[in-house]
Amino acid sequence: FPVTIANLEDALQKAGMYYNLGAAYAARKEFRLATHSYRQALKFAEITEQRSYQCYVLCKLSDIDLYFKRLDAAEEKLMKAEALAENELSSCGVLVALGELFYTQKKYDKAIPDLKEGLRQAIQIRNRNLEMEACHLLYKSQRAVGDTKSVLAMAERFHQINDSLKIYENRKELKVLFAC
After folding, report:
1. Each residue of 130-170: pLDDT tens digit?
2. Which among 48, 37, 39 has a CA at the least distance from the CA of 11?
3. Half-sphere exposure (CA, 13 Å, Cβ side) for 128?
4. CA distances to 6, 63, 91, 96 from 83, in Å
5. What is the dihedral of CA 71, 76, 79, 80, to 10 degrees?
6. What pTM did the predictor assign?
7. Mind listing the pLDDT tens digit for each residue in 44-85?
8. Going by C-beta distance under 8 Å and a sequence separation of 6 or more, which residues neighbour residue 94?
9. 161-171: burial string, b at 16+ Cβ within 10 Å, e else
10. pLDDT tens digits for range 79-133
11. Is 126 left (phi over 0), alpha (psi -120 to 50) or beta?
12. CA gap 148, 122 in Å, rounded
């Protein structure tokens, strides 16, 4: 269809709607429906030329491939996502996802550098969830190669992040409770 401002806004809204729908289906482990929704989100994100959004959707689709051990398909999606990453958040997400893929493939020599860079970026942009995921995967990767010194450091860092996330969630709940 012809691309106009109205169509672009509509396509961006549809991309968001399908992305959120995919996330809801994935959370319920309804992966066929999640995959369909994410593919629709990707289609609309491509129309709007939102590279970062395409990157996020490809990472979500690769998560589903990883879940079903379709490692080649996951890697293909992540390579596309890596080429689309245009900001630190999308780059960080791709690095952590690649680290997880390489860990799953037992390619620890590839996983560890990607996870270290993903962790560095997550700290820099203050994304606690990606930081925690990178720490956990680094812990597992370094444990697999026998790097005990780094394993201890990652375990400690992981627990610090986990504790701070719990404190943050508790504070949010208290604010809601006292606001009523």
Report:
1. 998 999 899 899 999 998 778 777 777 777 777 776 776 77
2. 48
3. 11
4. 28, 17, 9, 15
5. -140
6. 0.78
7. 999 888 898 899 999 999 999 999 999 999 999 999 999 999
8. 55, 59, 78, 81, 82, 85
9. beeeeeeeeee
10. 999 999 999 999 999 999 999 999 999 999 999 999 999 999 999 999 988 998 9
11. left
12. 23
Tokens in use for 109?
Answer: 């020599």
Contacts of 157 (CB under 8 A, 6+ apart): 135
What string of DSSP letters covers the chain?
A: ----HHHHHHHHHHHHHHHHHHHHHHHTT-HHHHHHHHHHHHHHHHHHT-HHHHHHHHHHHHHHHHHTT-HHHHHHHHHHHHHH--SHHHHHHHHHHHHHHHHHTT-HHHHHHHHHHHHHHHHHHT-HHHHHHHHHHHHHHHHHTT-HHHHHHHHHHHHHHHHHHHHHHHHHHHHHHHH-
- Here the tokens at position 57 are 């959707």
8 Å CB contact between 83 and 48: no
